[in-house]
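User: Hi! Is it possible to get a structure for several chains at once, not just one? Here's what I have:
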Amino acid sequence: MSDLSGLPPGAGLQRVTVLQGEAHASADPNVELSTVLGSCVATCLFDPLSRIGGMNHFLLAEPPSTRSRDNFDEHYGLFLMELLINKMLGLGAVKSRVKARVYGGANLNPAMKPIGTANAAFARKFLESEGIPIAFEDMEGRAARRIHFMPASGMVRCRTAPIESAPMDKPLVRPQSASGDVELF
Amino acid sequence: MKPTRILTVDDSASMRALLLHALTTQGFEVEQAEDGQQAFEWLATNEVDVVITDINMPRLDGFGLIEQLRDTARHADRPILVLTTESSDEKKRRARDAGATGWIVKPFDAEKLATAVRRVAH
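Assistant: Yes, the chains can be modeled jointly so their relative placement is included. Here is the combined structure:
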C-alpha cells in the first residue's frame, strides 16, 4: 500500500490508499482511507450506528466506439458500489442506515470527454435508486481532490489538490478484474 | 418457440435494472425478486426455467434460497446460477454444496451470462 496523502502518518494511524478499482471497508478507529481523485469518483459510505465505513474509487469505462460518446459503461461502477456495500455488510453494517458522501468527478481537461460528469451522474443515480441518502457531495468542477476518510467515525477531509497530483485517470474499455467467468458445477 | 423464462434475485435496484436490460436484449423473458424470501414465495406459485441469484441479500440470502428450493420437489432440479461479487472458494463451495448449478462472478459479461443460461435451461 502506498501513501498519496503527502502527510506524515499519525501515531498508530494506519493509512490505506484506495486506488482506482478498489473498495475498502473498516470499523477500526485507527484506519484512515485516502485517495486522490481527478475525474474518478470516491464514494464514502458510513453506518452511524455500527460505526462502519468504507470507500471505493471508480471510473466508468468508455463505451465501444460504435456507441454514443455520452453513453459510458456503468458495469464497473456498479460492481464497485456493490463490492463496497457487501464489504460493509460483511462487517455488520445495515444498508438502510448507510449514508453517503461523494467526491471527485472533475473534468480536468475541457477538450476531453466529460467523463467526470458521467461518473458523478452515475454515483447520484446509483445512490438514489438504492435508497442511500447523499449527506454531502463535492463533485465535478475542474480541480483534483485529495480525500481522507475515517471509516469508524464517518469524518471526511477533502482538499483541492494540484491537477498534477491526480492520477492519470484512464478509462478502461472493460474492467481488468471483470472476468464474468462462469463455472458450472 | 417459447422464450426461456428467468427469475433474477438481487436486492440492488441498479443490478436488477442492468440484468433486466442484459437478459431481455438476449431474448429472455425476465421476472425479478428483491431478495431470497420474495423469490421463494413467488416461486411457490410460478414457474421459471432458470433462477439467477445474488448471495448477499436481506431476509433470505442466496444460500438460504438455494437450500429451500432444493427441499421443494418442484424446484429440486431447477437450474440455479449464482451471480455474485464474492470470489472466495469457500463461498463457492458452499453454493455448490447447497445445490447451485453454476457460479458467475460480477461484473458479468452479458454474452457469457446468456450462454450459461442457455446451457443450463432445460
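The first strand of chain B starts at residue 5 and ends at 9. The domain at 26-83+98-107 of chain B is CATH 3.40.50.2300 (Rossmann fold).

User: Great, thank you!
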